Amino acid sequence: MIKICRQCKKSFDNKKKTGIFCSKMCFGLSRRTRFERVCPKCQKIFYVQLNRIKNTKRGIIHCSFVCSLKKIERICPKCGKLFTITPARIKNTKGNKIHCSWDCAWNNSIIKKCLICNKEIKVYPCLINRKKFCSPVCRTKGLPNYKNGSTAFAKQFRNTKEYKKLREDTFKKDNYTCVLCGYKGEIGYRNKLYRKSPYKGNRFPKGLVFDHIKSFAEYPDLRLNPQNVRTICKKCEKETDTYKRLWPGKKQYEV
Q: Model's pTM, two decimal places?
C-alpha cells in the first residue's frame, strides 16, 4: 500500500498498513520541539528550541553570542584606522577617548622624569600631577619619614636565629615572669599550624614582652647582650622610659 509521509511528503510503500512516516528519521523530526532558523548576521543555519523563540523579543535569534553583539564602527583618533567597538565600551570611556590599540593610546602619553632616580616614565595627561615616581621603591624613598631603609633592617635583624634564640633563652631564664611586677604569662602559639612545629621560635608567652633596657635603635652593640634584655609585662612596658619615646606626643627623649 502506497502512502505519503507526513514529514517529508514523499510516497513510500507501507507494508504494515498502519505507518504514517517513511522512516525513523522522519518520525523523530516530527516529535522534535526545535526549529530550523537562519542567523540574520552570518546566514548560518542552526536549530533553536520553541521556548527560546517565545522568550526573545520579536523572535530575533542569532547563532552565537558574537553575532548577537551590536558593534559600532569608529575611527582611531591617532592612526585613523577603522575598527569596531561595543556600545558598553563607549559608555565606560565617555565615547571620545577610544583608540584601536594600546600602542595608539600610549602614544598620547607625556614623558616625565622620576623625582628619585631621574628615570623617564610615560604618564597620561590626566595623571601628570599625580604620578611622580617610577616604582614603589622610589615612592617609598620619597616619603618624608623615610630613614634610608632602617625600618627594613630592624625587621630583618629581629628575624635572625641569634635574636630569636636570645629571646627564648631570656624567657626561660626569668621563668616566663615579669621582672618588675611578678606577673606570670601563659605559653601560647602564634598560629595553630605551628603547634606541631619543632622550631621553638614559634612559641611566645601571652602578656609578656621581650624588652631591651637600653634602646634597641641607639645602642646597636648591646642588641644581643644578655645583660641588656629582660622579661616584662605589657603594663610595665608602658611605664618604661623607652616606650614610644620617639613619638611626637612623648616629651621624654633622653635615655
A: 0.38
